[in-house]
Amino acid sequence: MSSLSIGYMLMLLAFLCFAAMDTTAKWLVSAAMPALQVVWLRYFVHFLCTVVVYVPRYGWQIGRSNKPGLQTLRALFLLCATAFNFTALQYLPLTTTVAIFFVAPLTVCLLSIPVLGEKVGIKRLLAVFGGFLGVLIIIEPWSQQFNPYALLAIVAMLCASGYFVMSRVIAGVDSNATVQFFVAGVASVLMAPVALNVWQWPADLKTWLLAILIGSLGMLGHSVLTRAHQLAEASVLAPTVYSQAVYIAIFSWLVFGQAPNLQTILGTLIIVASGLFIWFRERQLQADEV
């Protein structure tokens, strides 16, 4: 099997982990566990897994970064994205939050202009605005059915976009072990006092297991995703992000009995089409430069 094929399979596994993590988070917050407690559990268990997996092999040197400030900023972006997303999951269907998340690659395209100094043509700009149109169709801000908690999902998406941009800025600066250490460690430390302030003990064994599972899924997903990018170019693997739409639709239906409505389906299709156009355009430009 080729490296590219393995890379695709690993990416599909990574996004399956992320979809399962969001599903688990929604189940926990729906079971009356405070969203910020769930956020802390997601990162604390992730941090414990990082220590168990990497410290015996590399020692505590994994906590030393060549760019600690940038790694910390990147971790803060992801923490904020998770906090807003998990809070939004209390009030919104999974299919809605993940559809809004799909705008992140489009927002990254915009942010790459001032932050990374990249040039973005009119065609890609139009695709970005097409993606934002898809979000408007999903949340329907003009209708009486508008749910203001959708704004939390939008803020989560913007924070995730900052995380992705920072990932480009510091790509290759540190090892995967150090990246995992910062992502999980910074969030664990900052969220600990908040989580203790709102703490509610899990009511039963199932809730305990899900609380442990959520961080394990985060660790596995990020590790698998990193390995996939070692086997194939990020630009080639990028479209696999939309596999989450399928995973989330299945989990939402099986676990919560919620199927996406017509507006969500239509908006998601527009967002995905816009994202795929930008991906195709970037690949085309790269090929022209060779």
Task: Write structural notes for this entry.
- With 290 residues, this protein is an all-alpha fold.
- It has one domain (3-289).
- It is built from twelve helices and no strands.
- The protein has helices spanning 3-30, 35-58, 68-88, 94-101, 104-116, 122-139, 150-169, 176-197, 205-231, 234-237, 243-256, 262-289.
- Helix 2 packs antiparallel against helix 3.
- The chain starts with a helix and ends with a helix.
How large is the radius of gyration?
19 Å
**Approximate strand percentage:** under 5%
Mean pLDDT: 87
Number of helices: 12
When the domains are counted, the total is 1
Low-confidence stretches: none
Q: What percent of the residues sit in helical stretches (DSSP H or I)?
A: over 70%
Outline the fold blueprint:
Layout lengths: L2 H28 L4 H24 L9 H21 L5 H8 L2 H13 L5 H18 L10 H20 L6 H22 L7 H27 L2 H4 L5 H14 L5 H28 L1
Helix pairs in contact: 1-9, 1-11, 2-3, 2-8, 2-9, 3-7, 3-8, 4-7, 4-11, 4-12, 5-6, 5-7, 6-12
Pick out its properties:
single chain; 290 residues; mainly alpha; 0% strand
Could you write a compact summary of the structure shown?
The protein contains 12 helices and no strands. With 290 residues, the chain is an all-alpha fold. It has one domain.
